[in-house]
Every structure is written in C-alpha cells, then in structure tokens.
Amino acid sequence: MKIKSKTKKELLYLTLALPSLLGLLVFFIVPFVYALYLAMIDNPLARNFVGFGNFTLTINNAAFRLAASNTLRFIALCVPINVALSLAIAMRLRNIPFKGLFSAVFMLPLVVPSGSIVHFWRSIFGLNGVINSLFFSAAPVNWISSGYALHIITLIFIWKNIGFNIILFQAGLSQIPREYYEVAAIEGAGRFRQIISVTLVHLMPTMFLVLLMSFIATFRSFREIYLLAGTHPHRSIYMLQHFMNNQFVALDYQRMASAAYILVALITALALGLLFLQRRVANYD
After folding, report:
1. How far, in Å, CA of 229 to CA of 241, rounded?
2. Is residue 126 included in any domain, yes or no?
3. Is residue 39 domain-resident?
4. Which of 248, 266, 252 is nearest to 41 (CA)?
5. Higher confidence at residue 11 or residue 3?
6. What is the CATH number of the domain that holds 191?
7. DSSP character at residue 237
8. Distance between CA 219 and CA 140 in Å, rounded?
C-alpha cells in the first residue's frame, strides 16, 4: 500500500510539473539544439555541413572581437565593484537601527521596470538631461554616446543590483556568532584583523554566491544598455548581445548561432571557475 501511495504521489508531482517541463523543452532545449545545427551549416537553404567553420569566421570577425572584449571588460569592472561596495554597505547596516528599512530602499531599483530605469538615467545623462542643463548648457554633451558610456552603464548596473547583494551579505553576516569577534578582540585582534580573520572567512560561501549572481546579472543588463544606447551604441559598450542581435536582424543565423554558443561557453567557463575556486577554498578551510 505504501509503495502504491508513493507511486501515485510521484505521478501527481510529474503531472503537475509536466507543463513546465514541456515549456522548457519547446522554448529552451529544442531551440538550443537547433542553434547548434545552424552553427554547423553554411546557410539554411544549401545546408552544407561546415563543422566549426562558422565559429572560426565569428572569432576572426572584428565586431565580434570588440564585443567580446567589451563584455569581459564590463564584467571585470562591474563584478568586483558591486561585490565590494555591497559588502561594505551590509557591514555598515549591521549595527544600525531600522536596517530593514534601508535594505528595502536598496532593493527598490531591482523591481523597477527597465523602461523606467532607462528613462530615469536618460533624464540625467541625455542631451537635455540634468548634467547638461546644470553644467554644459552652452555645449551639451551626449554622454551616452561618448567615452564615458562604459562608466555610465557600470553606474546603472551597480545602482540596480547592489540591493540584492546587500540582502545576501546581511543574511551571511547574521550567521556569524558574535562570540567569534569577542574571542578575536580578547586575543588582541583589531577591527581590520577581525574583518579579515572572522568576517571574510565565514562569509566565503555567501561571497561566492554573490560573485556568481553578480556575474550572471552582467549579462541580464543588456536590456538597459540596449534601450539606453540602441542597436549601434558607442564602441566602448558594444556587447556580445549587440553583435548577436545585429546578426539576427541581418538574417545571418549561422554567425548568430556560433556567437551564442561562444557566449554560452564563456559563461559556463567563468561559472565553473568560480565553483572550482569555491571548492578549493572550502577544502582549504
């Protein structure tokens, strides 16, 4: 009877999950496999198998190289700043009253629609924005299409994503017993030494989670970049997603598919690198 009851429950759970599994299969797995097929042929009409020829052409493409270098630069700039700043703020909020209210305020940008975010920042950095009106009214600067574009989208990324990281770090900090700090103080450790030897050591699992989430968030920020700067932005913020979007518009599905798989390989390699580093640190501890 118990075995039959367990089987019925498993069938019920599978039935309830079936719509989601079908959606995953139709909208994610099948297109992902079909994209690999597109990346291996010369064009959708002739359908001649070319192996990794499209990948070679994509990697040698100047626009792709620019997009790849900009994407890596954006990640290298945003992730460390976002992690360090959110940790510093979380530590400052740890011992102040109404910290829950401050945390809620920091989370607000995360729930604001992308269109509203773009409109807000365009009102600051646009040709008719606040900065030009106050300081450059005689000769307005199009900041979004200038060499400052990368710094602007970095600021937007941090403004939008820092709140979530603060919540994660606050949860991690709350799990560290205060007795550890008291013992460290008795042994003569100063404030800085306590942060290094107690706080950071016990925050390592949270730290890697925040690093991984921040890394993934850099690829989700394309919506704001696209709405802010358009299809062909300043060369400093021309990302891999721009390249793939432009190849789709040009109906060059082979190059788009090969670029997508290269991007998947990049994301997978960086994520696995973080997980490997986390395991090494955990084993070392």
Report:
1. 13
2. yes
3. no
4. 252
5. 11
6. 1.10.3720.10
7. G
8. 31
